[in-house]
Write a sequence for this structure.
């Protein structure tokens, strides 16, 4: 059963810029780095916009 990022087995990653990623113990280890890279790219793009 998935917990949806809350309860037993929940994992919350807080990035240096304050962004948060919530998951559970069933997170796909190969996909997580891709998600984090995408978040970093989006944050950088937002920082460049006036």
């Amino acid at each position: 059963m998935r917990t949806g990022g809350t309860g037993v087995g929940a994992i919350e990653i807080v990035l240096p810029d304050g962004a948060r990623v919530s998951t559970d113990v069933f997170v796909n280890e190969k996909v997580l780095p891709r998600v984090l890279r995408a978040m970093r790219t989006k944050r950088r793009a937002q920082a460049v916009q006036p």
